[in-house]
Amino acid sequence: xxxxxxxxxxxxxxxxxxxxxxxxxxxxxxxxxxxxxxxxxxxxxxxxxxxxxxxxxxxxxxxxxxxxxxxxxxxxxxxxxxxxxxxxxxxxxxxxxxxx
Length: 100
What we know:
By secondary structure, the protein is mainly alpha-helical. The chain has 2 domains: about 55 residues, Winged helix-like DNA-binding domain superfamily/Winged helix DNA-binding domain (Arc Repressor Mutant, subunit A, Orthogonal Bundle), CATH 1.10.10; about 30 residues. It is built from 4 helices and no strands. The longest helix has about 40 residues. The protein is elongated and about 70 Å long.
């Protein structure tokens, strides 16, 4: 690990194919290329999403928009859970003051 240079599109595809078609582990291929296994995992996901446009800049935009959508969904879910929590706090306070 520690190689900080850019890889060509062909090199990235070759690394992904070693994992997907060559039966090699992500870790062994990542070590061979001198990259972190998470980087290779990201390349694998990008190639799986859009093999034709992978590593041309297109997949990065798709992944960024997918991450943005996921972030918005998670923020919405947090907001809903906070509202639910506030409601439960009020209900528990009510029943604590007014036992049946």
